[in-house]
Specification:
Elements (H helix, E strand, L loop, with lengths): L2 E6 L6 H12 L3 E7 L1 H6 L8 H9 L6 E5 L5 H7 L4 E5 L14 E5 L7 H10 L3
Parallel strand pairs: 1-2, 1-4, 2-3, 4-5
This protein binds [cytidine-5'-phosphate] glycerylphosphoric acid ester.
[cytidine-5'-phosphate] glycerylphosphoric acid ester binds next to strand 1, helix 1 and strand 4.
Length: about 130
């Protein structure tokens, strides 16, 4: 079984997220998503609208996702890859090159981002339309 891993906040789920998850899953037979905890989001200077628990429930309901575990630190990726027998690490290409150190442990794939959509854009567009 070819196991794939990917990381993210996945707040205010949109087609960019789904396109990433679908393509990642299609590279193997199993997709593990390591979901940023609320505390780690603070480290990334992100404030998610949905709590970790809710973002986890939402991700677990997606057909492409087999398992969701928490992301607490930048440093946990090697352990996650080794402990979960991961074959392929996948991220959107906004991260291109940033995780090449994982090439010692698994294949590293950066997929093209979906243009024109982001959680930030959603928040900005909604704020502009505030009554
Ligand atoms: N993504 C995408 N297209 C978009 C928006 C996001 O392909 N229009 C991808 C990102 O490249 C990432 C995934 O969707 O691979 C999740 O995006 P975020 O939730 O923004 O994740 P991020 O904050 O980049 O977390 O340790 C790594 C970090 O946790 C990555």
């Amino acid at each position: 079984m070819k196991k794939v891993i990917t990381y993210g906040t996945y707040d205010l789920l949109h087609v960019g997220h789904i396109n990433l998850l679908r393509r990642a899953r299609e590279l193997g037979d199993y997709l593990l998503v390591v979901l940023s905890s609320d505390e780690f989001n603070a480290i990334k200077n992100k404030k998610a609208y949905h709590s970790y628990e809710d973002r986890k429930i939402i991700l677990e309901s997606i057909r492409y996702v087999d398992k969701v575990i928490p992301e607490y630190t930048w440093e946990q990726k090697i352990k996650d890859v080794v402990d979960n027998d991961i074959d392929i690490f996948v991220m959107g290409d906004d991260w291109k090159g940033k995780f090449d150190f994982l090439k010692e442990y698994c294949e590293v794939v950066y997929l093209p981002r979906t243009e024109g959509i982001s959680t930030t854009k959603i928040k900005e567009d909604l704020n502009l339309k505030k009554e």
